[in-house]
Amino acid sequence: MTPAAGPDLILPTMEAPLRAKGFVFVGAEGMHAELARYGLRDWNSFAASWNRLGIDRYMADGGRYRRRRHATFAVGGDGLRRKKHQPHYQSRDYNELNGGIERWFRAVEPEIGAHPAMQAIMRLMYRIVTDLTPPERRPEAWHAEIHQFRIEALPEQPGHPTPEGLHRDGVDWVLVLMIRRENVMSGETTIHDLQRRMVGTFMLDRPMDAAIVDDNRVYHGVTAVRPIDPSRPAYRDVLVVTFRHQ
């Protein structure tokens, strides 16, 4: 999974802060430049697929403000292989609200799983997690999960991007990539160390703004989103990609 020729910004702008602090915010310009090196094309058709998600019916808080699709991949030096559709599972140690059960979500559409944008995102993440994992701890293939999320905000009910609150995901690495914000306010990302002291805060505001976190070293959370104009649809679309050892 070799990138195209061009200036390599990964080490100074992504990997160095990740190594030092356990998290990094990457602005849209830098993320676009790196994804382009890994084959990013046709972003608009990729982003449009967020209009075709299914309701998350596993919300223990009773909310119906979250839509999503899910898929799993094996990612290694020989490329990406999509796995048979399977449930998403988190123990209650990591997700007190919705954990402890197998959650079957709609599968990511085949053409979106194979989309040049998705492939570029996965290749970039593979490069980063490989660089930051000592050789003796690198798996032959990483288990990767992709989650398409839409959080809807209604006048009478805010949308909660992280309804479980401040949390870790029980994986090794997490990417949160902004797809689109439509008519919403707030949605601020906060990062906390293992003693739950805040160590960073930022807003994923523009398409391709991104956060990458070392899930073994930090907690993360996102504040609720509310509509700016209550008469219009309001939502926050993100892609979450996780990598963990098999």
Automatic annotation (TrEMBL):
Entry superkingdom: Bacteria
Family matches, as Pfam families: 2OG-Fe_Oxy_2
Molecular function terms from GO: dioxygenase activity
Protein name according to UniProt: 2OG-Fe dioxygenase family protein
Organism, scientific name: Novacetimonas pomaceti
